[in-house]
Amino acid sequence: RKPLPLSTARSTSFDFTSGPGSPGLSPSSPSYSYGRRDSAYRTRFLLVRTSHGGGKEAYTRVTLPGGSGVEQLKRTIEKAMKGRRVEAVFTLPDQNIIESDDQICQFSNSQKIDVVFGEGAPTPEPVGDTPASTAATRKLSCPASTSSSNSYSKHPSLSQ
């Protein structure tokens, strides 16, 4: 199989000079097929502090998709922290509270953040994600004759 010939109508030069009918491109502002790459639309990896004390800190890495706002940031952290409700998010070490989407654009790669979790109930999960049989709704089905009449354990706290 032979390769297709290169069309003479296509330009094979990659110079950045602008002609009379072409848009002005320069090496400092590249153009991509998906648009110009901006700091607001790139994926960030955040380090969420999970514990600290005694001079040691522990972090969990969370992936924040590009173009996310403050509410999306909170939901992403809630999901990573197993449903604990997020009240406030702030950066480390300067401890600026994150309140606007513009602050997320200024995050560095592997930005360290800390989270204040709410004291109330965890964030409710969507209806489609809950399993059909949970521990709260499942009942133990044992015959009445074996449930409490026979105690096989000699330990006093287990025989009750």
From TrEMBL:
Protein name (database record): Uncharacterized protein
Region (Disordered): 1-35, 118-160
Taxonomic superkingdom: Eukaryota
Composition bias type Polar residues, residue spans: 143-160
Organism: Pristionchus fissidentatus
Annotated Low complexity bias: 18-34
